[in-house]
Amino acid sequence: MSKRKDWDTYFMDIAYMASTRSQCGRRHVGAVLVQGKKLLGTAYNGAPMGLPDCSEAGCMLVEEIELKMIEEKEEVIRKQRCIRTIHAEQNLLLFTDREDREGSTVYVTDQPCWTCANMLANSGITEIVFHRGYPKDSEKVSSLMEARGILFRRMDAYEPPQGTITEVVN
User: Fold this and answer.
1) What are the CA-CA distances from residue 113 to residues 2, 54, 71 (Å)?
2) What is the pLDDT of residue 1?
3) CA pair distance 155, 153, nearest whole angstrom
4) Which of 62, 87, 156, 168 is the most exposed place for a label (fewest CB within 10 A)?
5) Which strand (E) or helix (H) includes residue 117?
6) Which pLDDT value is given to residue 164?
7) Going by DSSP bridges, is the β-strand pair 105-110/127-132 parallel, antiparallel, or unpaired?
8) Are 93 and 129 in contact (CB under 8 A)?
9) d(CA 57, CA 96)
10) Nearest to 131 by CA among 98, 164, 100
11) 38-44 and 105-110 strand pairing
12) CMP/dCMP-type deaminase domain spans which residues (predicted)?
């Protein structure tokens, strides 16, 4: 008899399954909204409905510049981001109700970026569980979640379902 999956694994598996719908060549991300043990919504990153996605029209990259203090010296950090897609977390917020989000948990394949973290911080959720890190925004996102009192945890030992992992381009 096989061992039953714990709830974290079960919901993260669903987030990874949602990510398989993404057509972004840089990163496939899936997210699910859960209240208690009840699944309330799923989402993935992709172009707005009816518009060509990255696989059809290519990524729409922009370069962002961030000033960061490193050892008391201001350094310029450059980041490339695709702006053709709506992030999985943003789609999840667009397609779920505020009342369903109150006190809920978001399971997301990847640590939220700064923009998504800000949106989630104001969404009513009380916990974010993620698997893969996102080093570009990690420190400030962790600080934001701590300041907002949102439980923020990484599933380090988690193994995604076979066939759901795509190579991540940072």
Assistant:
1) 36, 19, 24
2) 65
3) 7
4) 156
5) helix 114-121
6) 83
7) parallel
8) no
9) 28
10) 164
11) unpaired
12) 6-152
Q: Clarify whether 89 is annotated catalytic.
A: yes
Instruction: Quote the CA–CA distance of 153 and 130 in Å, as a whole number.
Output: 6
Handedness of CA 103, 4, 41, 154 (dihedral sign): positive
Beta-ladder partners of 34: 39, 105
The dihedral of CA 78, 79, 80, 86: what is its sign? negative
At how many degrees (to 10) do helices 114-121 and 138-148 cross? Answer: 10
- Is 73 in a helix, a strand, or coil? strand
The values of phi and psi at residue 94, to 5°, are -65, -30
Percentages (nearest 5) of helix, strand, coil residues in the chain: 30, 30, 40
- Kindly report, residue by residue over 40-69, the tens digit of the pLDDT: 999 999 999 999 998 899 888 888 888 877
Mean pLDDT value of segment 139-156: 96
Say which of 89, 139, 146, 167 is annotated catalytic.
Answer: 89
pLDDT in tens, 106-128: 999 999 999 999 999 999 999 99
Report the 10 Å Cβ neighbour count for 129.
21
CA distance 42 to 91: 9
75 and 16 in contact (C-beta within 8 Å)? no
CB-based contact 29:110 (threshold 8 Å): yes
